Amino acid sequence: MEERPENPDMHVYARYTQETRLRAEEVIGKMMGGHALLYSSGLSAAASALDFYMPSTIAIRRGYFGVHEVIRKYCAGRNVSIIDLDDEYPVTQGAPAGNNLDFRHGTTLVWVESPLNPTGEARNIQHYAERAHAAKGYIVVDATLAPPPLQDPFRHGVDMIMHSGTKYFGGHSDLLMGILALQRYDQFKHLWEERSVNGRVPGNFETYLLLRSLRTMPLRVLRQSDTAAKLVKFLYSLTETQQPDSNVPAQIAHGRVVKQVWHSSLQPRATLEEEVEDTVKENHDFDPSSQITHGGSPTFGMLISNENYAKYLPHYLSYFIPATSLGGVESLIEQRVIASPGMDPRILRISVGLEDVEDLKVDIIAAMTRLVNEHS
Ligand SMILES: *Cc1c(COP(=O)(O)O)cnc(C)c1O
């Protein structure tokens, strides 16, 4: 029988193997349709993905700012080019796609975050997987905003999936976790060996909390996705060109508060407000329903009509907590510029929790009405 060092008869030392972690990895591997590894955080998983592929070219556009910081660290002291997702990809020198573990500096790595943080808009993963492989490169998808069962990037040909397990896998805002998943066992084993050395494993107690969370994950995620789609529809009805329900006061409708809403359920987008940087800017005719199912990401963004409204609205709501992070059972709302420097200060990000959708709507109507009354 082939030796399985990641699954030994006896656990000797927790940097290598640990019982709770092994169990959680087996459950997540089954959920994702691959072999899963847990890391101490989403960003330590991202750093491990870069160390694994050793790219000399990275194609990326926007997305979670912390991943760009990790890339910056990886690039320090190395000769790495950062190119745009839609640039031409240089053909990988060294290990071609599908080759064994002969990674050398020379690989082209395509890094796709989908759905995109903070807007919840989806990218055409299949399109970038085909382009990456045509250049003998690899593609990693940061799928944090659409965890299983909403999206299966392996079905669209990606080599590796990354998640911040801190978000929907954890689901209760009480643990920090990273996940990498691959379909190839040889690559999984290689990554496992690297992790055994660099020690980027999660704490055992956090892993125990994660196992607790996995038991309710499909229930949570499907409900959050469903509620998010309903809220997106409601908020979109408050934009300039739309007609809201009769119970919505006219003073908060017709774009007076909500200028734009972004979410995969609103793609393909009719209007491309190009002055806003943080939106999906590629594949405008792409319909995400073939790659992202149910109601789409439970996290989405909106553009508020002015900066002052965007600053106060999070603090006028009762059900939504004004805080960063996403994926927990409580709904959160955040003026994104506070956590992510350089963003348009009118952008708010909402992470939908498990509250009743009608309660959330009533809360939003009351808070927006107060906003307009007090700040006009
Ligand atoms: C939160 C997040 C990360 C980073 O994960 P941590 O667990 O905080 O290290 C990476 N990508 C996306 C899309 C995220 O939302």
From TrEMBL:
Keywords: Pyridoxal phosphate, Transferase. Its cofactor is pyridoxal 5'-phosphate. InterPro entries: Cys/Met-Metab_PyrdxlP-dep_enz (IPR000277), Cys_met_metab_PP (IPR054542), PyrdxlP-dep_Trfase (IPR015424), PyrdxlP-dep_Trfase_major (IPR015421), PyrdxlP-dep_Trfase_small (IPR015422). The modification N6-(pyridoxal phosphate)lysine is found at K167. The keyword Kinase does not apply. Its EC number is 2.5.1.48. One of its GO terms (biological process) is transsulfuration. It comes from the Eukaryota. GO terms for molecular function: carbon-sulfur lyase activity; cystathionine gamma-synthase activity; pyridoxal phosphate binding. The keyword Cell division does not apply. GO terms for cellular component: cytoplasm. Pfam families: Cys_Met_Meta_PP. Belongs to the trans-sulfuration enzymes family. This is Cystathionine gamma-synthase. It comes from Malassezia caprae.
